[in-house]
Amino acid sequence: MPRIFLLLLLAFFPTLLHAHQIAEITMSLDLKGEKIEGVVQADAAYMLEEFRGDEDEEAKDLAWLRGQGPDGWAKIEAEAITYWRDCFTLLADGTPIPWTMEIPAFHETAPAFLSEGEPEELPMLDVAVHAQLPPGAKHLDIRWKEPFGVVLVVLTGTGPDAGTKPIMSGEQMTIAERSATEEDLKPKPLSIPDWIKVGFQHILPDGLDHILFVLGLFLLVPKWKPLLGQTLAFTVAHSISLAAATLGWVNLPAQPVEILIAASIAWVGIENLCVKELGKGRLLLVGLFGFIHGLSFASALAGILPKDQPEKLPGALLGFNIGVELGQVALLAIAFACFAWLGDRFVWVKRIGSVLVGLAGLTLLIERASGIDFIPFF
């Protein structure tokens, strides 16, 4: 990851007669990876609102700073932070990010400025600034708004890469850009909630095969209890085959699996037209078809399952399977909302819907066996 070397430096340029009438502030940032650090050298007196911007105020010196004592130092630090909060905003890809500021010398048992430097010198202090660039952020901007129109001059880089970017009060400017690194481009590990989302999306809206299959189950007996039993059997079965295929225990070519899935859809649609009630054999068939569908899941997830991190694999499979079950339940809820209220008239929905499911399954079967797409979105 490239390192942009900066030194955060705040220098005030007083005129000969008016110490606190400032024309510009010079700043530089040190961006190391995602860590933003800096050191600001500031005129302690300018940090106090009572002196800031006063053309007639005489310059303060080191003797004045020493005489402020702990209470005065705390006030200087507090007002310095307030000033910068009002004037200075750091943004990552356009979004403000938090930062902190402190004056380390004020927190030391024996501050160096008490013994170092001549009393008539300007009361300059080192101020530390810290921030964190969010992971993946590519642009670091500064927004500057100073009440007295002071220009913020930002120094970037060092040596031949050094640059100067003046920012007028009220302006915003990009001061650092980070290109994507190999580490940035690596896929981030998914959490269990992420895997639940992936599983859900494999049903709704992406899983046309599974939508047709579950709707076929719904059309035979639109009742929650038997449907939940069937979807649970389906989920348990595909969980077993998904795990087995992921671990390399089962390995079937993709085309036969897809053909069998199409056959399962056609079977459900046709069987609905031949039977009136849910039989025990349907539950066994649903489990068998679930096992086949799980092999298809394994093929689809081959590129994103954490096979090289065995400790994360159980969580990934668990989350995905939960998501699939939730997707099936959501699909059933939609089906109930659309059709279950029809009562006796639902028999026509069952017949027409089952015919359509059966035809869709047969179409998929022919397409996958022949390799010819008759219907593009299938």
UniProtKB/TrEMBL annotation:
A matching Pfam family: HupE_UreJ_2
Source organism, top-level taxon: Bacteria
Transmembrane segments: 283-305, 317-342, 348-366
Signal peptide: 1-19
Keyword match Transmembrane helix: yes
Keyword Signal: yes
Coiled-coil portions: none
Protein known as: HupE/UreJ family protein
Origin species: Luteolibacter luteus
